[in-house]
Amino acid sequence: MKVTITSIELKGPLKFFALSANAFSILKQLKSTNYKDFNKQGIWTKHYTMTLWNTEQELKDFAKSGAHLKAMKKSKQIAKEIRTITIDADSLPPWKEAKKLLEGANAIRY
After folding, report:
1. Which of 56, 57, 50, 64 is nearest to 96 (CA)?
2. What average pLDDT is seen over the chain?
3. N or C: which end of the chain has fewer CB within 10 A?
4. What is the C-alpha to C-alpha distance for residues 87 and 2, in angstroms, rounded to an integer?
5. Cβ proximity of 82 and 7 under 8 Å
């Protein structure tokens, strides 16, 4: 199984409203897939998600379609930095471990 861990650092606290609008649509899309587990957390300008997938192909199909694809195309309008990493695991890691893994991930900076 695959776990994708993502962090997004917003350009400012008011960008939270745009993030929330995108997140609502993305969660609706996610619920229509065969994902296994999902968790999120965030405060102020730093937000995180973790999603567990059966296969890498399911993950790619989700990431490159629908609301998620639309949000990624608009991400530079709201994000200062995005980090993402995909690992092999049978369950979502604890947040402390997930955030440590993200420290070594490549960052997209706008």
Report:
1. 50
2. 95
3. C
4. 6
5. yes
In DSSP notation, 1-13 reads: -EEEEEEEEESSG
> What digits encode the pLDDT tens for the residues 17-32?
999 999 999 999 999 9
Residue 91: which of 31, 7, 5, 3 has the closest Cα? Answer: 3
- What pLDDT is recorded for position 87? 96
**Strand, helix or coil at 90?**
coil
Q: Which of 55, 40, 53 is nearest to 99 (CA)?
A: 40
Report the C-alpha gap between 18 and 10 in whole angstroms.
Answer: 10
Q: What pLDDT, on a 0 to 100 scale, did the predictor assign at position 110? A: 87
Tokens found for residue 36 = 């296994």
Q: How many CA atoms lie within 13 A of 2 on its CB side?
A: 15
**Contact present, 83 and 109 (Cβ < 8 Å):** no
Q: How far apart are CA 16 and CA 50, in angstroms?
A: 19
Which sequence spans correspond to the domains of the chain?
Answer: 2-109
pTM of the prediction? 0.91
